[in-house]
What we know:
The structure holds two protein chains of two kinds.
Chain A: E1 4-6, H1 7-17, E2 22-25, H2 32-39, E3 45-48, H3 52-66, E4 70-74, H4 78-92, E5 97-103, H5 119-123, E6 129-132, H6 139-151, E7 157-163, H7 164-168, E8 170-172, H8 192-203, E9 208-212, H9 214-218, H10 222-232, E10 236-238, E11 253-256, H11 263-271, E12 274-278, H12 284-287, H13 290-294, E13 299-304, E14 318-321, H14 324-337, H15 344-358, H16 374-384, E15 390-393, H17 397-405, E16 414-415, H18 426-436, E17 442-447, H19 457-463, E18 469-474, H20 479-488, H21 504-510, E19 514-518, H22 524-533, E20 539-544
Parallel strand pairs in A: 2-3, 2-4, 4-5, 5-7, 6-7, 9-10, 9-12, 10-11, 12-13, 13-14, 15-16, 15-17, 17-18, 18-20, 19-20
Antiparallel strand pairs in A: 1-8
Chain B: E1 2-10, H1 15-26, E2 32-37, E3 43-51, H2 54-66, E4 70-75, E5 81-92, H3 96-107, E6 111-115, E7 119-126, H4 128-137, E8 143-148, E9 152-155
Antiparallel strand pairs in B: 1-3, 1-4, 2-3, 5-7, 5-8, 5-9, 6-7
Amino acid sequence: xxxxxxxxxxxxxxxxxxxxxxxxxxxxxxxxxxxxxxxxxxxxxxxxxxxxxxxxxxxxxxxxxxxxxxxxxxxxxxxxxxxxxxxxxxxxxxxxxxxxxxxxxxxxxxxxxxxxxxxxxxxxxxxxxxxxxxxxxxxxxxxxxxxxxxxxxxxxxxxxxxxxxxxxxxxxxxxxxxxxxxxxxxxxxxxxxxxxxxxxxxxxxxxxxxxxxxxxxxxxxxxxxxxxxxxxxxxxxxxxxxxxxxxxxxxxxxxxxxxxxxxxxxxxxxxxxxxxxxxxxxxxxxxxxxxxxxxxxxxxxxxxxxxxxxxxxxxxxxxxxxxxxxxxxxxxxxxxxxxxxxxxxxxxxxxxxxxxxxxxxxxxxxxxxxxxxxxxxxxxxxxxxxxxxxxxxxxxxxxxxxxxxxxxxxxxxxxxxxxxxxxxxxxxxxxxxxxxxxxxxxxxxxxxxxxxxxxxxxxxxxxxxxxxxxxxxxxxxxxxxxxxxxxxxxxxxxxxxxxxxxxxxxxxxxxxxxxxxxxxxxxxxxxxxxxxxxxxxxxxxxxxxxxxxxxxxxxxxxxxxxxxxxx
Amino acid sequence: xxxxxxxxxxxxxxxxxxxxxxxxxxxxxxxxxxxxxxxxxxxxxxxxxxxxxxxxxxxxxxxxxxxxxxxxxxxxxxxxxxxxxxxxxxxxxxxxxxxxxxxxxxxxxxxxxxxxxxxxxxxxxxxxxxxxxxxxxxxxxxxxxxxxxxxxxxxxxxxxxxx
Lengths: 567, 163
């Protein structure tokens, strides 16, 4: 028998039916009825953050590390505006989220009511889609659509704005078992003719290069990618978003590419004759100046779920629109069945060239320094965690060192804000990662500037006993800003220095956590070992690092991939 | 190059602002835009006139297709099509000019749909360039006001945009 439920009951029932385990949020006037329903059940666990931005980042970290849709709940007005940074972060990196936001009652919409903003309008440019539910009869089907849209095709955040009166009204609840939208039908199979063309081009390559991005992670295609790369013996690079898509410890991996990519990866990108781009989008931080990139001739195969990513910044020769895992599996089949083989001689020559580039040892740094080098902290972290931790990061130099020196062998282990570059992402996203992986070791590599953007979440970590390890690379500068000022602004360190830093050890302790300060290189390893032994505790490790260390290599803005500044 | 892009979209609140927002966010031109419901009230049809290189137009159509509420899209300029725009223009019509303005309207197959002792309002339909041509034949100070709908269009013959 059908029963009448309120909008708030429907919302919570729906989340239960979807199997949502955690919802990250912060209560407020417009969502009180929903919170009341959350109170009456225990299937969906609510995680109370200390700021709505963190709710979004936590849901985001949850989604990135688990391939489930992350769910956040915020109130109207400031609840939503605080969440916008987190929504935009997820949008830029194509992360599946459903955001439920409260709205003032329908009759008050447009009246400049208390805590009213045009949520649909404000979030429109940074969501995959959004809805305002004005009629309770549409509530259940709208939430269904939101989950469907968020998690299919090129994933992304979808927001459902629910006015308070809609959460109070009643209607008969039928769980919508299926969803179909005549205007939204994402493709998954690639065009078979195009895949054939790609296979031929791959087999004819003399200097091939495989370049994979976040799409491989999002589509769980790293096994297929690894099989393809190994069967061909081709060099492979990953973007910042794609790290872990191909095992970093494998000899065919040439490191990350792009602005702070390795010399060998960038040179191989520039001088290859056939480039296979998989779930990547040729963005400005990856290929630098597109004109310079064009100055060398090469054929490009581009596999992506989103047609608008293809030929956006770089014109490609063989576009394939489809799910990267399906297309890769088709390619593997075709290449296996083909009578043609790759040109072994040419490939040997190409690898010789790549090995010469590798000899430049572009990631070297002073290992004998008496002050802590940040790179060494990441290397030791890698060793102490045996390469098996989940690593989140904030944004800046520490993010690049984490990407360069922690070698990710598995997908969904490297969690960072690549597209939007959101400082403050590291700590709250790590909370989501820990909840999604309760037995996993989770570390947040951050800096003293970034960490302070969401430092209040140390309180959330205490409440839910999240034993994160925070690796604070403290150089008393906004390191990446300082680096650019050193290189491009005549050493004028305009506002990139903070001279009133907190005592992070005491700060951590005041939140009920363990704080450690490490000042000497010889103490790094021991301190890390000690911290990771405290399995039940959050440990805030404040590493006092070299103030003026720079990230190398670097492709300066507007320059080409072969125009790197080397150490 | 000038392109006329025609799209069918869900007739829902906010759909128009998604299209307009996309154009401003990505820096594309909108020369004109019009929208109204079709014979199926759940669908609206929009005609957009834009100018851009082939690469830009390709991105525009791809980005429009990505909008969840856009059901179908066609670049009419890619093939044979019919284009019409409606213009209402109010002009001074005093003394000798009254006869001259009437003749001009006739030449362009316009209709005078409102007359006062000092002005005519002329209704003119045609391609956007025909309407431009009409305005160019009239001295600027004779024109009191104009309103144009922006171009609408359909593919010719078998070229049909329908769900």
